[in-house]
Amino acid sequence: MKKVSVIFFTIVLLVITYLFFKNDELKIDDSKFTKIDLPKKFIESSYFSEYNLANKFVVYVDFSKSMTKRRLWVVDHGKVIATSYTSHGFGSMSSRFLPPTKFSNEEGSSKSSLGIYRILTIRNMNPPKTKHKCSCDEYETTNECSHLAKKFPLKGLESSNSNSLDRGIVIHTSRYVSENNCIGNSDGCFVVSPEVFEILQAKKMMFFKKCYLVAMK
After folding, report:
1. Is residue 14 part of a domain?
2. For a designed S-S bond to 92, which of 5, 79, 111, 155 qualifies (C-beta 3.0 to 4.6 A apart)?
3. Full residue range of the structural domain in which residue 163 is found
């Protein structure tokens, strides 16, 4: 009887896992997003071939552009889903209208780091934050929302960004980044619009399916 229970539990677990993977497609209407072809420098980079990024879900960031430009690409298996805005660390900036010039992997530097990151599974912001820019119905009508803000931690995979977890470098939303512009900077985190954040949230089982962020100059 015990053996039958173990087999039954295993089958149920496999079915649930299958359903999660089967329904891993993006559930977002991407027609509302701006789409610009991914720059060749990403496709020609060593990251692209080494990590087989043509067949992965990847967020690309081009730090050769200023914060006033669309410099973030969300790409799923080679298809550009969105081209949007993102912040950089205020310690990296020279001017709002110029690209960031200084990069660092050191704690307390408030600078952005270059390189490739693994996007880890979603977590609550710590400390919890309810006052943040969101696309939920409650925020759209009252400019506030009661649910906790979320984040995607980033694990740096090379020497230029290896301290990202200790530094608390994450993908999150904030009031200063939207689908129209970016008007502020972070302590080194990749701040995105609520709409782009929703795309990441639509990727189920991100812990098992390797997803990446690539930041290049």
Report:
1. no
2. 111
3. 27-216
Spans of the chain, pLDDT less than 50: 18-19
Closest CA to 199 of 180, 169, 179: 179
Whether residue 7 lies inside any domain: the answer is no
| Residue 23, SS3 per DSSP | coil
Q: 208 CB contacts (<8 Å, ≥6 apart)?
A: none
- Backbone φ and ψ for 163, nearest 5 degrees, come out as -95, 15
- Which CATH number goes with the domain that contains 201? 2.40.440.10
- Continuous segment of H or E residues that includes residue 67: none
> What are 14-48's pLDDT values in tens digits?
555 544 555 555 566 788 899 999 999 999 999 99
Strand partners, 186: 89
The alpha-helical segments, DSSP class H, found in 44-169 are 46-50, 137-142, 164-167
